[in-house]
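note to self — DONT lose this again. spent like an hour looking for the file last time. sequence + predicted structure for the chain T wanted, 410 res
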Amino acid sequence: MRPINLSQPVPANIRFYQITQWPVWMLPFRPYFLAAGLLAFSSIGYWLLILTGSATWQLTIPATLWHAHEMLFGFAGVVAVGFLLTAAQTWTGVPSISGKKLMLLTLLWLGARGAFFVSLPAFAQFNLYAVLVLQLAWWLGVIAALANMLLTAKSKNNYQFLVLLAALCTLNIVYLALLIEQNMQFALAIVDTAVLLMTLLIGIVAGRVLPFFTSKGLGLTAQVRTANVDSVLLYMSVFSIAVFFLSQLFFNQLNPGWALAVVAVLHLIRSFYWWDKNVLKVPLLWSLHFSYLALGVGLMLVAVSFYSSVILFKDALHLITISTIGMIILAMMTRVSHGHTGRSLTIPHYMAVAFALVLVAGITRSLLPFVIGPHLAWQLSAGLWLIAFLLFLIHCTPILTQRRVDGRRG
């Protein structure tokens, strides 16, 4: 392309074209990981201000339901999509979305975040309707992009991810619709189901990458395979999620505790087989192993909560949402950011500290309320989370916004 004469006015279409060619729009992991880091820091920062009484909550829905939506469907959702749309290019050889399409989808996601705080006096709950429309448009766009890649390559082994994203999209839209209808009890059941669905996605992805990353990172001759456990775990996870969903919304007499306990044991078995003491020397490995271990422990505590008041359901669930979902997201975003920009997998020591802080944040939120009181435990957990994701932003923002170090596109 001919150089632009800066002494002359630049046509708008050329300016827009140049923006879409910035490195941040080259692959989905770049804007989505950056957006996730910013949301993780800003939303929990605001949440901490609310918990300490330094900020007031003005929306018509409870602050806890906004918090749940943003951390699950906003934060975890955008990371899952960023990872899948980037990994699918490797799986299929079909180019992922980039440039203008990626930028427009990112703007939809950003618009949904801000729409929560937009109100029209003449239109009750305008903000929730706006969030619903923007979230739905974003989900449909990213699902269409992933479907195009997988169907073009006939990558049948990965069609399951389309089903999972469609299920998350459905739960997200139903959740928002329930908020509009002021049906808060059902909304909470939906978001809890979505957390369990996210654990299913983590279980599938972990089964693919954790043994591979471990063998590669430690220079092992072979990966540890758990094919039989993997197969049983997949079907048992789907069954347990279905039982939980039915028990929360339709059949109160159903107790999903036993099914969740079986799934927890299967995750713990895989965690045991995949473990190698040498991962403790590699932060990008031990972070993944401990986050996956927290999944098995967290699900077991969730199961126990259905039989005993020793552990509360929401406290147990937060070990999963923070120490599993939050920690595995932080580790995977860091690893992918390095790997897909041509950088080595050596990270600064402060990133290892960030991984540990998220692990401790989950333990603090789930187990310490009985010791130091819920309010203080929540505040400490939020503070640890904020430090961790601030460190991520400091480290990865330059990586995500600059070109690959090897000069290749991506």
